[in-house]
Design brief:
Elements: H1 23-32, E1 47-48, H2 60-67, H3 77-90, E2 94-98, H4 101-112, E3 118-121, H5 126-134, E4 138-141, H6 162-172, E5 179-183, H7 196-206, E6 212-216, H8 220-230, H9 239-248, E7 252-256, E8 267-271, H10 274-287, H11 298-311, H12 314-333, E9 346-350, H13 351-354, H14 364-376, E10 378-379, E11 381-383, H15 385-388, E12 403-407, H16 415-430, E13 438-442, E14 453-456, H17 465-470
Parallel strand pairs: 1-10, 3-4, 5-6, 6-7
Antiparallel strand pairs: 2-8, 7-8, 9-12, 11-12, 13-14
The structure holds ligand PM9.
Ligand PM9 binds next to α4 and α5.
Length: about 475
């Protein structure tokens, strides 16, 4: 019997209690955290939608595989299993484990980027661009315009604009472009997919010019599901087959196994070219660990190998994204402005549309994430100007999208949790004009969104920063 609705293809064997806090506790907690949800203690959070990275629930098969992890320093049996799973499902010959995705980005950037090089990509990602810049490269956004428009219903907002890519190649020359960085899905655009057809076009343009294509595969399985659902001719194919086709259009991939692969830590760099792989193996021993563990324990590699296999199960991926869509549709029905179409790993609130009274230099998305926490105990993440950082002149970058991400960990929360999240966002929406902006009071040199601290903009005379930030919010609810 086939069902129209989806249900989680698992049942719960182990549970972890959640802690509810009071509003006064949360007011103090957010002030202590400098109004940055990254700096909250997890114990002060009720429903944690900060990230889907490393926060997924592992299966009984993953946990039992960890018990047979081979902790040999060199040539671990667990590495062989990981290598086998990556070869089978992603199709790359050379597999170099890393402690997580940015470890792979670091090695790749050091290896392929020379000072003065240019790296086109379908929208920036924070850690990816940081490593490209540290290696002396310049990132160029060549995603289609629709990706920068929260309201565009384009089904493949992750697509690369081929004319933008061609124009960059004409301008700087193919020899200054070590690779095109293709993300699937595109996190900062709202978890939006790239189509197989578009990946083919990119391949056809770059191959004759000798420009490589490197896939960021953190959520490539989710991308493959969108291709199956939306791309003409793909509807009857398995997600695993589509994933294989996507990878076949790339020369290599960086991977955070903390996303699709259902692991709490880990990643890899995978390559086809023997010489580049040799270079990567040389570098990985400097920064991560020997090339057969790359900073991971044998048990971690076991968990990833099993997680890869589980990640491409049709039932798993359908319910994983089904849950995200369930939350997104509830919010849309209530008139909340969110990025459309609903993405694969998260629902993204359009903070600029929700809080038009807060100017961009007072970081509306950061303020909204803080206010949502105070109101409900739900932790989300800013994905706007704070995440975008500063340009080479030291000025704030203001991306078109000013978003708050409600990121859904895999296999962790139930539909009832999603209902609470939706109710909480609707409550904040109803009192949105009471949310006030933030000033940065501390900013680290790199990836500022992780550690920056803020204070409420002091507009009213005689109010403490905390009273002002939360403002009349403190009068609503409890
Ligand atoms: N993404 C996320 O929450 C965790 C860190 S940034 C807040 O979305 C892509 C597309 C990612 C990603 C991490 C990495 C880096 C690369 N590409 O976190 O180093 O979304 O494993 O991966 C995070 P690692």
């Amino acid at each position: 019997m086939t069902h129209k609705s989806w249900a989680e293809p698992w049942r719960i064997k182990v549970v972890e209690p959640l802690r509810m806090t009071t509003r006064p506790e949360r007011e103090l907690a957010i002030e202590r955290a400098g109004y940055n949800t990254f700096l909250l203690d997890a114990d002060d959070v009720y429903i944690d939608l900060l990230t889907d990275s490393g926060t997924s629930a592992m299966s009984d098969r993953q946990w039992s595989a960890m018990m047979i992890g081979d902790e040999a320093y060199a040539g671990s049996r667990s590495f062989t299993k990981l290598q086998g799973a990556v070869r089978r499902y992603y199709g790359f010959e050379h597999v170099i484990p890393t402690h997580q995705g940015r470890g792979a980005e670091h090695i790749l950037s050091r290896l392929l980027i020379k000072p003065g090089d240019h790296i086109p990509g379908n929208m920036y990602f924070t850690t990816t661009r940081a490593h490209q810049e540290l290696a002396g490269g310049t990132f160029h956004d060549v995603i289609i315009d629709e990706a920068h428009d929260a309201d565009s219903e384009h089904e493949f907002k992750g697509n690369i604009d081929i004319s933008k890519l061609r124009a960059l190649i004409d301008e700087v020359g193919a020899s200054r472009i070590p690779y095109v960085a293709v993300a699937a899905t595109v996190n900062m655009a709202g978890g939006q997919p790239i189509s197989l057809a578009n990946m083919r076009e990119v391949r056809e343009l770059t191959r004759p010019l000798g420009i490589r294509v490197i896939l960021d595969g953190a959520r490539a399985v989710e991308n493959a599901w969108f291709i199956q659902q939306r791309e003409p001719g793909q509807g009857r194919r398995l997600v695993a087959e589509i994933l294989h086709d996507m990878c076949a259009l790339a020369d290599g991939m960086t991977m955070s196994a903390k996303k699709d692969s259902l692991a709490n830590i880990g990643g890899w760099l995978a390559l086809r070219d023997d010489d580049i792989a040799e270079g990567a193996r040389n570098l990985v021993v400097l920064y991560e660990g020997l090339h057969t563990y790359g900073g991971l324990a044998g048990r971690d590699m076991e968990a990833i190998a099993v997680g890869i296999e589980e990640s491409v199960s049709e039932d798993h991926i359908r319910s994983r994204i089904g849950q995200v869509i369930y939350l997104g549709e509830k919010l849309m029905d209530a008139g909340i402005p969110i990025v459309r179409p609903i993405g694969g790993h998260a629902v993204f609130l359009d903070a600029a549309a929700m809080l038009p009274h807060i100017p961009r230099d007072q970081f509306p998305a950061q303020a909204l994430a803080a206010a949502l926490y105070v109101e409900s105990g739900i932790r989300s993440m800013e994905r706007g100007a704070v995440s975008a950082g500063r340009d080479e002149k030291g000025e704030n970058r203001y991306p078109a999208l000013e978003l708050v991400r409600l990121t859904i960990p895999r296999r962790v929360y139930t539909q009832a949790h999603m209902d609470i999240v939706a109710e909480s966002v609707i409550e904040i929406f109803d009192i949105r004009e009471k949310v006030t902006g933030l000033d940065i009071v501390y900013e680290p040199a790199h990836l500022r969104f992780f550690q920056a601290r803020f204070e409420p903009v002091k507009r009213l005379v005689g109010t403490t920063p905390r009273a002002h930030a939360i403002g009349s919010l403190a009068l609503v609810g409890e």
